[in-house]
Design a protein that fits this description.
The chain is α/β, with parallel strands linked by helices and about 300 residues long. The chain contains eleven helices and 14 strands. The protein folds into two domains: about 200 residues, P-loop containing nucleotide triphosphate hydrolases (Rossmann fold), CATH 3.40.50.300; about 90 residues, Alpha-Beta Plaits (2-Layer Sandwich), CATH 3.30.70. The strands form three sheets. It has a six-stranded mixed sheet with strand order 6-7-8-3-9-10, sandwiched between helices. A four-stranded antiparallel sheet has the order 2-1-4-5. Strands 12-13-11-14 form a four-stranded antiparallel sheet. A hairpin with a 2-residue loop joins strand 4 and strand 5. The longest helix has 16 residues. It binds adenosine-5'-diphosphate (ADP) and magnesium ion.
């Protein structure tokens, strides 16, 4: 359904996507996994042909560069940042997009039905919960019944109830045979929704794998935060990355995901290379569905073993 070959996108100074190729069969579900800045959003935009990129993308056999409009008609896209008029009612919002895409209103109603929003047409957008807003975006993306749905971190701004609603909705769409590509920061989501994972780092595809291979034993993965001597953080991140650890280098230290019974390994690995760890703390289990502790960004919790 999707055939991507040698996709490369260079911004002025940054090689955001670096020679990345993959195939996705009809009905398949692919997760894009990687730290902030790994290139997930840029890859998605290249797939959709929204800006010029090197390489080729075919969607349902159609070349995105040559026939962008036709190719994009096969894809429903849900961007990370949603933009709706807060005053609009849900019914008029979906009607607007039905007219824009020249589809029958009955199709718009079906699309609302598919995301569980039938009956809410008179609600204003500003009164919708985060999960409902995200489902409305999904309904709009699916209004012309495209075979492929592409989502950029569909749950990143949602609480756990909202995440559950969105994941359940996407599961149903998978059951209906839709092909899915989504970027995510959450292992639980990837395990539930994806059958394949592209692990990206600094624009490169470093691993093409399955959720089961990435997280062999769901319960035993822990995230821990390492506090490194100041000035050594970047080197520590580099060393751990090269050592095969999945890390996230955020504003407040390095987060490493590690199997429960191997928690000392990353520290030993660093010590052997002359880098001291000042302190560490264990974060919540990456598979717990609780909200993260105050002050800890969700995205920093969910990097795990490759
Ligand atoms: P992700 O979605 O995985 O967080 P992005 O695709 O947003 O990553 O970004 C990949 C890299 O490309 C980052 O270094 C980012 O700063 C850079 N980048 C993204 N968009 C632009 C842009 N429009 N102009 C310049 N650099 C960009
Ligand atoms: Mg992104």
């Amino acid at each position: 359904m999707i055939e991507a070959r040698h996709i490369t996108k260079q911004f002025k100074r940054v090689l955001a996507v670096n020679d990345l190729s993959f195939d996705l069969e009809p009905g398949g579900s692919l997760a894009l996994w990687g730290s902030n800045g790994a290139g997930k959003t840029t890859l998605i935009r290249c797939l959709l042909g929204v800006f010029p990129c090197k390489g080729t993308v075919r969607i349902d056999g159609i070349d995105v560069r040559r026939s962008g409009k036709h190719a994009r008609a096969r894809v429903g896209y849900v961007p990370q940042e949603l933009a709706f008029h807060d005053d609009a009612r849900l019914g008029s919002a979906i009607r607007f997009f039905a007219e824009l895409r020249r589809v029958e209103l009955i199709q718009a109603a079906r699309s609302l039905e598919a995301v569980g929003l039938r009956g809410h047409e008179s609600k204003r957008v500003r009164d919708l919960s985060g999960g409902m807003k995200q489902r409305l975006a999904l309904a709009i993306a699916m209004i012309a019944d495209p075979p492929v749905i592409v989502l950029d971190e569909p749950t990143s701004n949602l609480d756990s109830a909202g995440r559950g609603e969105v994941v359940d909705t996407l599961l149903k769409l998978r059951e209906q045979g839709k092909t899915l590509i989504f970027a995510s920061h959450r292992p639980d989501e990837v395990i539930t929704l994806a059958d394949r994972v592209l692990v990206m780092e600094q624009g490169r595809l470093v691993q093409q794998t399955t959720p089961e291979a990435l997280w062999p034993s769901r319960s035993s993965i822990r995230s821990m935060r390492l506090y490194i001597e100041q000035g050594d953080e970047y080197r520590a991140a580099e060393i751990l990355r090269e050592g095969g650890y999945a890390i996230n280098h955020g504003n407040s230290g390095l987060t490493v995901a590690i199997e429960q019974h191997r928690k000392a390994e990353p520290m030993n690995h660093l010590a052997e290379r002359g880098i001291g760890v000042r302190d560490f703390e264990l974060l919540r289990d990456v598979h717990d569905d609780d909200e993260p502790e105050i002050g800890i960004a969700t995205e920093q919790l969910s990097e795990v073993l490759p």
